[in-house]
Amino acid sequence: MGTRTRRHVSVVEAERRRMRAADLFEQGVRQSKVADMLGVTPQAVSLWRRAWAEGGREALLSKGSGGKSYLSAGQEAELEALLRAGPMAHGWDDQRWTLARVGRLIEERFHVTYEISGVWRLLDRLGWSWQVPKVRAVERDEEAIAAWRTETWPAASHPRRSQPLQGGSASRMKPEPG
């Protein structure tokens, strides 16, 4: 049995592989040999063979990517505009979009319910990435921070020793008489 590695294959490549399997089924090649030749699992070949036996080559044709959206292209464009406006424009008290918030926005605006994983796939397809925002107070005063760093902190930090250390020990033990 050959070694197999998992890798992403395109819809076209997967369909081409299934059509090659159909050719091999028609030639009477054993399922285990088909799996080795095509670099797929015996379970996949078993499913393909059953579909082929029941519906011929047509049953092995691609049914699409399966990445269906419940929103139209226009609704997706509108969603992007809503997301760009930010969460505060929609009633949340901070500037963080979460998958739950986006899902709620979609449900309220478009009357469509997505699972959290579906919200993630939709956002990914629309080009939105997962990011953790830098949390900064709205009241943050950069000038005051710079002044504190240059004036207050140096004065409050450990003062430099004015005299060099003289001989001695930091140990609590008394030194041996010399």
Automatic annotation (TrEMBL):
Residues 93-151 form the Winged helix-turn helix domain. Pfam families: HTH_23, HTH_33. Residues 151-178 are annotated as: Disordered. InterPro entries: Homeodomain-like_sf, Winged_HTH_dom. This is Winged helix-turn helix domain-containing protein. It comes from the Bacteria.
